[in-house]
Amino acid sequence: MTARVRGVYATALTHVLLSGGHDVVQASPPIRRRFDASFDDDDHDVAIETTDDRQGVGVSGEPETVTAVADDLRVGTDTFVWSSPTPVGAVFDARVVETRGRGAVCELGDRDGYLPYDATDEHVDEGDDLRVQVRTDNPPWRDRRAELGTTLEAGTGLATLVAGREGVSVDTRDDAAGRELAGMTDLLGVDTPEGWGIRWRHAATDADMETLRSALERAVERAEALDAHRDGSVGDPGRRVAPAATAWVWFGRESRFALDDRRREVTTTMPGHHRIKTTSDRASAGVDFVEALCAPQGEFPFDVVTRQFGPVEGDTVAIGHGKPDGRLITLGRGEVVEHDPDGTVAVRRELSGGGTYDALGVPRERGDVALTKFREGRWWYPTVYRSADDDVKGTYVNVCTSVECFPDTIRYVDLHVDVIKHADGTVERVDDDELDAAVEAGEVTDELAEKARNVATSLEQAL
After folding, report:
1. CATH code where residue 144 lies
2. At the N or C end, where does the chain have fewer CB atoms within 10 A?
3. In the prediction, which pLDDT does 228 show?
4. What is the per-residue pLDDT across 249-306, written as a single tens digit (0 to 9) for each?
């Protein structure tokens, strides 16, 4: 298997892949410098790209290869992997359900996609039925629709065939190299389907003739598979064909530190390298600066990092409540009222009235206050609910993956089972059945479930 790797996890994941017997191709200059290995410019079976928020990576390519590689990337107990229902390149019959200023929301079956108007030559109105293809997918925790287009494309890595186009184009700023590659394309001796144009990626300008030929042949195979879906009537919303697959891999705190260990075997890596890199662009640049100067030792410098980049007292943060199925629910925003060097961040939220508190069974009233104490790296956190008169209504202790305190969001993945303490002191454990169901559904591994149950048992005894 060959993989192309990009982003802040590239060095660590290159180490993981090479150790697993895979080949990494089209490596960036820093990767070539760090590894005592040769890297070809061959086409790739899978592409591994860091997500925009740096929380994890997307793995796209041949379906069977994506599954195998995603499993190889489970570097820690709190690594989650989700298969995307809208992989890049998948073709859907869609129905326009809403038009907006710059695009339209399209029903794809059991989910929606977004079609920008500049990604189609057709006039789009509500109720229209269209055949669309996924251009850009998004991880489940971002809660953003996949972006669509109406022109079919058949891409592998270096080469893409575009329906309804003619000739050869090269996506590069190097005009001379682009002209040379366009002129060489006829020499490859690959017949392309009628009505499909060729678009090369910039990386193709460095590839040899055999690699170019192989890439184009693979693109032709995909184009021929899609050709049957270019015309014909559009049916009810649903997926027609998916020539490739996409998996999303989310790294929890322990996984990020496991990736630090892999990276440290190759190059200078400070404690908390990937944890800090995930924080912000400024923090990422700071890590690069520190590692260029020296080889830092010791523990993750929580106090230094948070005092430099946040959160600190007076800041406002969101509570990013991840779910094992990949969704991210924001449990409101609150003010940081405590910041301790030991890793504790206390967040105060004023609550609106209505309903009852989950599991506690007491009314949620206007003026109630929730004080939540998060501690970096801990597998649980408590929230104490008080009335406007400062009477305790109960304590809810959430069991989750190890907490990470980022500048704008406290982040973790909920593991269902929780422990509560009622106002009268009664302690109760809840939602074990939901954890069991998540294991049965393949959303939580047996190892992670056992960790959650052990944490819940310890909390029961402590409370």
Report:
1. 2.40.50.140
2. C
3. 83
4. 999 999 999 999 999 999 999 999 999 999 999 999 999 999 999 989 899 999 999 9
Strands 328-339 and 344-350: antiparallel
Q: Characterise 316 by phi-psi region: left (phi > 0), alpha (psi -120 to 50), beta (else).
A: beta
In a domain, 416, yes or no: yes
Q: CA 138 to CA 134: how far, in whole Å?
A: 11
Same domain, 137 and 183: no
- Give the pairing of strands 46-50 and 2-6: parallel
* 412 in the same domain as 327: yes
Render pLDDT for 74-129 as a digit per residue (tens, 0 to 9).
Answer: 999 999 999 999 999 999 999 999 999 999 999 999 999 999 999 998 899 999 99
Is 294 within a domain?
no
Give me the number of domains the chain comprises. Answer: 4
Q: Are residues 216 and 325 part of one domain? A: no
Residue 156 has pLDDT above 90, yes or no: no
Whole-model pTM: value is 0.93
282, β-bridge pairs:
none
| 67 Cβ contact list (under 8 Å, min separation 6) | 83, 245, 247
Task: Please tell me whether the peptide bond between 311 and the residue prior to it is cis, using omega within 30 degrees of 0.
Answer: yes
* Same-domain check for residues 356 and 251: no
Question: Within this chain, do residues 76 and 113 fall inside the same structural domain, yes or no?
Answer: no
What does the alpha-carbon distance between residue 241 and residue 50 come to, in Å, rounded to a whole number? 26
Supply the range of the domain harboring residue 364: 316-462
